[in-house]
Amino acid sequence: MNFNIPNSDQELQELWDDFLKGKLSPAHETWLREQLAQDAALRAKFEGHRTYREGIETHFLRKDMNAFHEAMPARENPVKVRPLYTKFAIAATICVLMGLAAYFTVFRPSAKEQLYADNFVVDPGLPTTMSTTNNYEFFEGMVSYKRKEYDDAIARWTKLYEEEPSNDTLNYFIGVAHLANDEASTAGEYLNTVEETVNSVFRDEALFYLALSQIKTGQVKEAHKTLAKSKAPKNQELLKKLKDIE
To answer: Is residue 203 a contact partner of residue 230, using CB atoms and an 8 Å limit?
Structure first.
C-alpha cells in the first residue's frame, strides 16, 4: 500500500490527529515515522501541530477543572479549599515548565545534528528493470533498498562485496544503506573506498554522504576536508553550511 503526505492543510492536520490518537494502521504509522525522521520541514510542522493540540487540551482540562470546583457544594470554610487547589495548580505548572525546559535542553538537536537531518536524503538507487542472471542478486538488493529494507539490501550486497571488495558501486550503495540505517561509522568505511576511486561515477555523491557520516560522528574537520575534494555544487553548498554553523 502506498502512502502520501496530504497536500491540503486540513488533510495534513487530520493525519497528525490520527497519528497522535493511534488510529493509523501499523504500516501507515511506520511509514509516517520514517518520513518525519527524514524530513526536517515536515517534522517541524508536526511538532507545531502537536504543541497546538496539547495547548488546546490543557485549556479545556483547566476549564473542566474550574467547572468541577464551582459545582462543588459550598463548605463552611471554602477558603481552605481554594488555596490548596491554587497551590496545586501553581506547583503543577512549575513542574510542567521545568519539564519542558529540561526536554528542550537535553533533546534539542545541536547545530551539527540539525545540519545532518536537513541534508540527509537517501540516494534513490538504480532502476531495477536492469536485472539479468549475472546481477540478479544485486538488483534484488536494490529492490529491498528502495523498500527501505536496508538490512536485507546490505546482506545481499555484502555477499557480492566479499567477491569484489573494490567494486565502487557496491561500496557506494552499501555505505549509503548503512547511513540510512543510522550506522554512520560503518557507512564511512565503505564510502571512503569510493572516494579513493578517482574515476568512479559515484565519487562526488560518495564524498557528500561521507561528509554527512563524518558530521554525524562529530568528525567536523574531516568533513571539511572531504567536501573540499569536490567542486560539485551540492558538496560546496554543504561545506558553506558547515562553515556557517561554526
So the answer is: yes
Domain ranges of the chain: 1-71, 74-108, 118-244
Helices 111-119 and 40-71 sit at what angle, rounded to 10 degrees? 120
In CATH terms, the fold of domain 118-244 is: 1.25.40
Residue 102's pLDDT band (cuts 50, 70, 90) = low
Which string of DSSP letters, residue by residue, matches 55-80? HHHHHHHHHHHHHHHHHSPPPSSGGG
Q: Can you tell me the distance from the alpha carbon of 183 to that of 179, in angstroms, rounded to the nearest whole number?
A: 5
Which residues, 6 or more positions from 202, have their beta carbon under 8 angstroms from its beta carbon? 168, 169, 172, 194
Query: What is the rounded CA–CA span in Å between residue 60 and residue 55?
Result: 9
Residue 35: closest CA among 5, 2, 14, 12: 5
d(CA 140, CA 158) in angstroms, rounded, equals: 13
Name the pTM for this structure: 0.58
